[in-house]
Amino acid sequence: QYTVTFGDYAGSDNFIAIKHGNGGTYRTIYIDSVTWESMPAYGLSVQTPADEFVNAGETFDYVVTVENTGSSADTYDLSITGDGSWTYQLFEETGTTEITTLAVDGSSSKDFIVRVDVPSDAILGDSDTENIVVTSQGDGNYTENFNITTTAITPITAPYTEGFETSWPPIGWS
Q1: What is the rounded CA–CA span in Å between residue 93 and residue 104?
Q2: Closest CA to 118 of 77, 146, 87, 94
Q3: Residues forming a β-bridge with 54
Q4: How far apart are CA 110 and CA 71, in angstroms?
């Protein structure tokens, strides 16, 4: 199966020519089930990061990729809507400027950062979940929600014994 996109095509012709490279004069190819679909003006796909374990008192940057699957440039509203208790912020891809929107050209993608500050008083196994929403300004029907869960890890001082009274497997085991 082959997919051919014409997103960069600037011409006005209304036909498609197909040339095969099988060599020789009397070679044949068969083409069936041709579908012509016009690309929607707006669209959205979000690649979400995996949950992470982070040292108490440290900051971690989750990288999120927003793909504009439409043909038109679009700006996406970014918001933190969950009820997590740790501090979360949204930054542009270099991590220096805080943002609430992200502009992405048509048929392109762009990254942004969700930064979480894990409290220094967090104890091993404490976790926090936050919900992030990405919504197209061009067509508000295109919206994606995703959760990020961060779990605190802390150094264990020796000697340490685990009695396995609370849960199996213990935090950090897989």
Answers
A1: 12
A2: 87
A3: 152
A4: 15
